[in-house]
């Protein structure tokens, strides 16, 4: 049975139950034959996995205190499966059988050709018992008090509800009991359902832009270097200066350590002359002094440390690395190429910047070699809600017995990067009294700093709504997340793809989004390029028009302003599980709190002039 890596990553994971089409049977995936992935940014992915793990109150199969070195990132080569569930019904006489393991099953039926004692063909039952702790089992036959397992049958009583199903002895007619199971680990009842039901297995996954970042993993533990990266993003230092500071950081660190030793010895009362002889007099180089000055300016204007600093820089890096990829083109490049080849559609292509401006977009790029890594770090059953389920890690790989396996699929795909106009977003917030003072329209550094100060990516919960107390973050994130979904849904129709074949990455501090083709689904190669180079105007026009209405209006717009008919996409495609969305952010709304202007409303656009 041949399957692509992307499909395997989400549908053929260990402990998942599948239809084995080659043998017409049902099986459970026992393990993977894997190779260690050598083409991913392990530091960034480890940090994101640890951030996700914190959200789960109950976990099994993970270290007590996970660290980046706790994980190993593996790619699949082959999968091992085993017949499951081991519960069977004879198609002729109806007799039922269940087994604890495959050896018992083979011993019982191997000699007689896997047929019932009456000669009838056995049918594998597709029902299983499962529990929110992660444990599963096949349906277990219960013995008759008088006749044991001699002739027990399954009676469904013409009901699709398994709670009405019973085991019955066909010799004496005694009803033995129901088909429900009992979790031996938790001492609680289990649920019964067909193995295909989505609640039986929820993979928990991440998709990240798989770029190199700031280099070696040790750099992620250097807060000074992270602050220097922010200085480079704000234009305080050039990219060349940042690289120079980065490369000289090790020498500076030695000097810092020597100075630290010097100060400790002075505090202990050692004579300064003796210290100078032993340690030397430390004089910072001009580069070191400039470096420290830049770091202090960032610390003064941006009070962020620890994990929040790491998350912020990781997001900035992902964005900057993407737009600087070799095959990335912006709208100006497309116009220049059209002009060079005397494209007959040049006049229409020349209108692309205006169309983007109308939608509040300041810049757009198309990327043909977008590196994306999809990773699955665990699974749950019954519910994906971190507050209710137990997150199960995958069993340790025999090659890496001391590490928790994370299964990954690094790939290259195509995508479109949308950068939203910072000043227009802030003017929209100001018009709606969400903020008061905002930077000047031409103060690019001030606008960037506002988003870095006010929007905290580390504070955005992954599985829940952003709390109202984080008002600035909630308003900005909901606006750009809604814009992303509207653009995804309308892009899919234009390029002939299902909306769930596209996915998103959100950069709230930029603010920007990446819409890319999701390799977990089939997609049309070149579709995003075609959309970017020829279809920007109809794309924007359709998005602005279609967001006005929903099949379920007025209920939708007067309640959540977001539903499966207007904004929702697949949870594999959505980075925030269809939370923090609202069409009212784009088209406006009037309620008991007053009138909210929509970002795409003509009234708001008029006020910008």
Describe it for me?
- The protein has 609 residues and is α+β, with helices and mostly antiparallel strands.
- Among the domains are: 212-309, no CATH class; 421-608, no CATH class.
- It is built from 19 helices and 24 strands.
- Helix 4 (223-234) crosses helix 8 (306-323) and helix 14 (471-494) crosses helix 16 (536-546).
- It starts with a helix and ends with a helix.
- The mean pLDDT is 87.
Basic shape: globular
Helix content: 25-40%
What gyration radius follows from the Cα positions, in whole Å?
A: 30 Å
Determine the strand fraction and express it as a percent band. 15-25%
Cα distance spanning the termini: 61 Å
DSSP helical segment count: 19
Q: Major sheet: size, sense and barrel closure?
A: 9 strands, mixed
Give the beta-strand count. Answer: 24
Average pLDDT over all residues: 87
Low-pLDDT stretches are none
Structural class, judged by helices and strands? alpha+beta
């Amino acid at each position: 049975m041949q399957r692509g890596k992307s499909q395997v990553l989400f549908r053929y994971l260990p402990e998942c139950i599948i239809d084995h089409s080659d043998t017409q049977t049902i099986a459970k995936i026992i393990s993977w034959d894997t190779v260690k992935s050598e083409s991913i940014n392990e530091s960034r992915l480890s940090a994101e996995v640890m951030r996700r793990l914190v959200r789960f109150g109950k976990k099994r199969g993970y270290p007590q205190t996970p660290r980046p070195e706790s994980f190993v990132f593996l790619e699949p080569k082959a999968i091992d499966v085993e017949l499951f569930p081991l519960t069977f019904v004879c198609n002729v006489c109806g007799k039922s059988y269940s087994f604890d393991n495959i050896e018992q099953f083979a011993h019982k039926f191997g000699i007689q050709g896997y047929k019932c004692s009456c000669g009838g063909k056995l049918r594998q039952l597709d029902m299983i018992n499962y529990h929110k702790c992660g444990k599963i089992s096949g349906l277990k036959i219960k013995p008759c008090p008088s006749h044991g397992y001699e002739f027990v049958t399954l009676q469904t009583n013409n009901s699709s509800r398994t709670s009405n199903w019973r085991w019955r002895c066909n010799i004496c007619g005694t009803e033995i009991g129901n088909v429900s199971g009992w979790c031996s680990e938790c001492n609680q009842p289990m649920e019964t359902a067909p193995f295909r039901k989505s609640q039986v297995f929820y993979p928990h996954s991440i998709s990240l832009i798989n770029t190199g970042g700031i280099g070696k993993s040790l750099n992620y533990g250097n807060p000074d270097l992270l602050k220097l990266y922010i200085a480079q993003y704000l234009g305080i230092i050039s990219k060349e200066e940042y690289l120079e500071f980065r490369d000289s950081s090790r020498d500076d660190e030695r000097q810092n350590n020597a100075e630290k030793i010097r100060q400790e010895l002075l505090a202990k009362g050692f004579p300064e002359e003796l210290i100078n002889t032993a340690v030397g007099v430390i004089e910072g180089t001009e580069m070191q002094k400039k470096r420290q000055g830049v770091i202090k300016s960032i610390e003064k204007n941006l009070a962020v440390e620890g994990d929040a600093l790491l998350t912020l820089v990781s997001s900035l890096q992902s964005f900057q690395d993407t737009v600087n990829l070799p095959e990335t083109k912006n709208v100006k490049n497309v116009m220049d190429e059209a002009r060079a080849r005397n494209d007959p559609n040049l006049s229409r292509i020349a209108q692309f910047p205006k169309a983007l401006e109308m939608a509040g977009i300041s810049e757009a790029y198309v990327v043909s070699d977008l590196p994306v890594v999809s990773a699955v770090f665990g699974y749950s059953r019954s519910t994906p809600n971190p507050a209710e389920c137990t997150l199960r890690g995958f069993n340790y790989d025999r090659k890496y017995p001391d590490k928790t396996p994370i299964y990954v699929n690094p790939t290259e795909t195509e995508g479109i990067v949308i950068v939203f106009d910072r000043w227009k977003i802030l003017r929209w917030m100001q018009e709606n009294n969400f903020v008061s003072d905002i930077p000047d329209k031409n103060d690019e550094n001030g606008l960037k700093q506002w988003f870095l100060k006010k929007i905290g990516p580390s504070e955005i919960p992954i599985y829940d709504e952003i709390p109202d107390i984080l008002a600035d973050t909630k308003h900005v994130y909901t606006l750009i997340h809604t814009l992303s979904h509207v653009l995804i849904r309308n892009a899919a129709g234009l390029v002939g793809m299902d909306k769930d074949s596209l996915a998103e990455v959100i950069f709230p501090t930029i603010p920007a989004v990446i819409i890319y083709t999701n390799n977990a689904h089939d997609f049309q190669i070149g579709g995003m390029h075609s959309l970017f180079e020829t279809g920007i105007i109809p794309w924007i026009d359709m998005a602005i028009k279609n967001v006005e209405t929903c099949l379920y209006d007025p209920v939708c717009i007067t309640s959540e302003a977001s539903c499966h008919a207007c904004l929702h996409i697949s949870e594999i495609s959505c980075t925030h599980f269809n939370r923090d969305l609202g069409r009212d952010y784009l088209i406006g709304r009037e309620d008991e709190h007053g009138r909210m202007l929509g970002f795409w409303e003509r009234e708001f656009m008029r006020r910008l002039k």
